[in-house]
Design brief:
The protein is of the alpha+beta class. The protein contains 11 helices and 22 strands.
């Protein structure tokens, strides 16, 4: 299987002026490094993203659609390529970032996603998942769809696409195989088959999972709705997020939690509402974090809430996010004794939705590890933002989970290798690990960037984070580390970003936020070196 995870950089080509955007030109800027020059536009030392209402976000998306044709010309794309808007963001200084997918001759391009950056002065640059020209010799497949479906033992017909995430673009078939994983988690496995040779080009799992036993959050406020018959778990203040009881069924949405009074659960698993309380609270805290800290209204930025399902299946020891339903699903664990609703775990799963709506990091290889790490990083961030006294925030994912019977956390951001599987540092070949383990160096980077190396106590938890060569790293603070990762994710990462690419993306993000010659940019570069990710 071809590995597409190589570094992607910003455009180095120039573009002519065009009427819709007035006079513009590609800047040729490269991702910032410790010695980088000023990026396009004014340095946004006070922060990057401007707070956008759902209406303003929608207007930016409309603009992205309006200028798509002229942008394609300015970027010298093939006339058969069409840009399809996915997301948009705006900085406080007026710089906008339009995220697009692409089609070629009306066929979806896998690995064709790109972000166009336009300064307030009209200067353009772009970040692409893959820099190769998209064109393919023919859009007529040699291998028929029926043959591909038969070889994969599925009755669902594949769709014809252009595969452009690695090497030379190729005409391909994309199949989606729906099944059930060994632990009962739904599976949506995407397989990309060369439409000329019939060989497999790529495969990945689209359902993002996390595993563990839940922890209650204690007495917490909930967003509910008063109806003629009482109350329901419908948080209209957060996009209409609803929470449902699946009654231990494996499929379906279940029933919306309702009650005659506005008091829910008992803190004990024997009360079915208790799991609903934890899930509903986790969704609210994730929403609040994204809005309060990053100015994003909802997972997709459109003001629409996802929904949650609890009590899924019987003895189901997992939880997962699915883009297909735009929802979170929680099992109750072995013996249906505990729901998998610890706050950082719940936030971790919902952040998979954020990643899907922005960078779209493919869930395999190095990009898959970065997908998982993004969820670990922001799952931890949500916990610190909530500051729940019942579940004291820590750099320990799922710290109340007890998968091995020893009461140990699921993952350690300060020293990932403590889990017995995750490496502390990057190495050539890390892409072959399970994505829950190849996330280790990125998790370690975030902790070091936030807190620094060596002994430290935070919220009563003791840490002693190492570096690859023993050098001391001084942290810049968790808040700034979060801002850098968020901007890198939403503005510079693409579907195929690997460790080299995320180093470049975070350096550029730090330069945007704090200035290209700032100590923060140097700190980001030094911290990546501390986990063996070098330029």
């Amino acid at each position: 299987m071809t590995n597409p995870h190589r570094a992607r950089h910003r455009s180095t080509r120039s573009a002519a002026a065009f009427a819709v955007l007035a006079a513009v030109a590609l800047t040729g800027a490269q991702p910032a490094d410790a010695s980088a020059h000023t990026p396009p536009g004014a340095v946004r030392a006070a922060g990057a993203g401007a707070l956008l209402s759902p209406q303003e976000h929608a207007e930016l998306l409309k603009e992205a659609a309006r200028i798509a044709v002229e942008l394609a010309k300015a970027l010298h794309l093939d006339p058969r390529e069409v840009l399809k808007p996915v997301d948009a963001a705006q900085d406080a200084d007026g710089t906008v970032h339009f995220r697009y997918n692409r089609t070629f001759a009306a066929l979806p391009v896998l690995g064709g996603d790109l972000v166009v950056h336009r300064t307030g002065q009209g200067a353009l640059s772009d970040t692409r998942a893959h820099r190769a020209s998209i064109g393919v010799p023919s859009t007529t497949p040699v291998v028929p769809a029926t043959q591909v479906a038969q070889s994969l033992h599925t009755t669902l017909p594949p769709r014809l696409v252009v595969w452009s995430a690695a090497g030379t673009p190729a005409l391909a078939w994309e199949s989606v195989l729906e099944a059930t994983q060994e632990d009962g988690t739904p599976s949506e496995r995407h397989v990309v088959t060369d439409a000329t040779t019939g060989g497999q080009l790529y495969a990945y799992e689209a359902v993002h999972t996390g595993i563990g036993q839940g922890q209650y959050n204690g007495t917490v406020p909930l967003g509910t709705t008063h109806t003629l018959l009482g109350y329901e778990m419908n948080d209209t203040a957060r996009g209409g997020h609803r929470t449902y009881d699946m009654h231990h069924e494996a499929k379906g949405r279940g029933d919306l939690f309702t009650n005659q009074t506005d008091r829910w659960g008992s803190g004990d698993q024997s009360n079915d509402e208790t799991a609903g309380v934890d899930a509903h609270y986790g969704a609210a805290q994730t929403w609040d974090y994204l809005q309060d800290v990053h100015g994003r209204t909802g997972i997709r930025g459109d003001g629409v809430g996802a929904y949650s399902r609890v009590h899924a299946g019987s003895n189901y020891t997992n939880a997962f996010w699915s883009d297909k339903c735009f929802c979170m699903t929680y099992g109750d664990g072995p013996g249906n004794a505990k729901p998998l609703t610890e706050l950082d775990v719940a936030a971790h799963e919902m952040i998979h939705g954020l990643t899907s709506a922005t960078a779209g990091l493919e869930y395999t290889g190095e990009s898959g590890g970065l997908n998982e790490s993004t969820s670990d990083i922001f799952g931890t961030a949500v916990s610190f933002h909530a500051d729940n006294p019942t579940d004291v925030p820590a750099y320990l994912m799922g710290k109340h989970l007890d998968l091995d019977g020893k009461g140990t956390p699921l993952r350690y951001l300060d020293q990932p290798s403590k889990d017995g599987h995750s490496p502390d540092y990057w190495y050539d070949g890390i892409a072959g690990l399970d994505v829950h383990y190849s996330s280790g160096p990125a998790n370690h980077f975030f902790y070091l960037l936030a807190e620094g190396s060596g002994p430290k106590t935070v919220n009563g938890y003791d840490y002693d984070s190492p570096t690859v060569d023993g050098r001391v790293v001084t942290g810049i603070g968790r808040a700034d580390a979060e801002r850098i990762w968020y901007r890198a994710l939403t503005t510079y990462m693409t579907s195929t970003t690997d460790y080299s690419g995320v180093r470049a993306a975070t350096l550029q993000a730090a330069a945007d936020l704090f200035g290209p010659d700032s100590a923060t940019v140097t700190a980001v570069a030094d911290t990546w070196s501390a986990v063996n990710v070098n330029s």
